[in-house]
Specification:
The structure is a single chain. By secondary structure, this protein is an alpha/beta fold. The chain is 30% helix and 22% strand. Strands 3-2-1-11-12-9 form a 6-stranded mixed β-sheet. A 6-stranded mixed β-sheet has the order 4-5-6-10-7-8, covered by helices on one side. It is globular. The structure holds zinc ion. Zinc ion binds next to loops.
């Protein structure tokens, strides 16, 4: 069984298409939320992910705000402006689809894995360091929990009182790059595939990962995409310029 795992597409259609084209063959797809918000193609991105076979979703904080399920008061002004614009152009059907997304965490049926947008202990909580990862690592029963929300690729592990942090190290800083992590028995993992549509770890390329159960391995990927086109869609929508600029910086 091989699963494609991604998070934080943030309405970036060009990055999503590049990821789908580059992803190795897989049997299932796990989406960790924030399908919309920030980017210029919310309807197109929702329709694309809805068309994917064998996909399991959890909702993200932007998904909740963009469909009106929760308030934008906790958002900074730029995120709020993007959420309001998204809400204004979503079709009725896509708005309803966002409202129906499940609250995380969700255990994947028949697999030793859980998916969540933020922490599995609280879907809106950020996990950025080992201190924040610690309570979740202690409490998860499945071997691996996949989470997003921070837009930073990598993760954390815990085994018999030993914990460690993982960050993919890529040979190439351009083109498609990959980095594999062998899974050790008895170790619990919190894995972040990174963000497809708005990376914040200094690498502008779209991020995702692939779980290969038979090989007991997770491979992280970075894929270049048509950045200028994605930026153009943000500007054409009249969204803040900063949202287009930050895509190039990966911040
Ligand atoms: Zn996000």
């Amino acid at each position: 069984m091989r699963a494609l795992i991604f998070s934080d597409i943030h309405a970036n259609l060009d990055a999503l298409e590049a990821v789908l084209a580059a992803a190795p063959q897989h049997d299932a797809t796990w989406d960790l939320g924030d399908v919309v918000g920030y980017g210029g193609s919310p309807n197109e991105v929702i329709e694309r992910v809805r068309s994917l076979p064998a996909i399991t979703h959890v909702r993200g904080n932007h998904d909740k705000v963009c469909c009106g399920e929760s308030s934008a008061l906790s958002f900074n002004p730029i995120a709020r402006e993007a959420a309001m614009w998204t809400q204004s152009i979503l079709t009725e059907e896509n708005n309803q689809w966002l409202r129906d997304l499940p609250h995380g965490p969700v255990d994947i049926e028949g697999r030793n894995a859980t998916i969540s947008h933020g922490s599995p202990l609280d879907e809106d909580l950020y996990i950025l360091n080992i201190r924040e990862a610690w309570p979740a690592l202690q409490q998860m029963r499945t071997q691996t929990t996949f989470f997003g929300h921070t837009h930073v690729q990598g993760g954390f592990g815990w085994n018999e009182g030993q914990w460690f942090e993982m960050k993919p190290t890529y040979q190439a800083s351009s083109g498609v790059a990959s980095w594999s992590l062998p899974l050790a028995e008895g170790t619990h993992y919190l894995i972040n595939p990174g963000s497809i549509g708005q990376p914040r770890d200094g690498d502008w390329r779209a991020a995702f990962c692939l779980l290969d159960e038979a090989a007991q391995e997770i491979t992280f990927y970075r894929v270049p995409y048509d950045l200028a086109r994605a930026q153009g869609r943000i500007l054409m929508a009249g969204l803040p310029e900063r949202l287009a600029q930050r895509l190039r910086d990966g911040r």
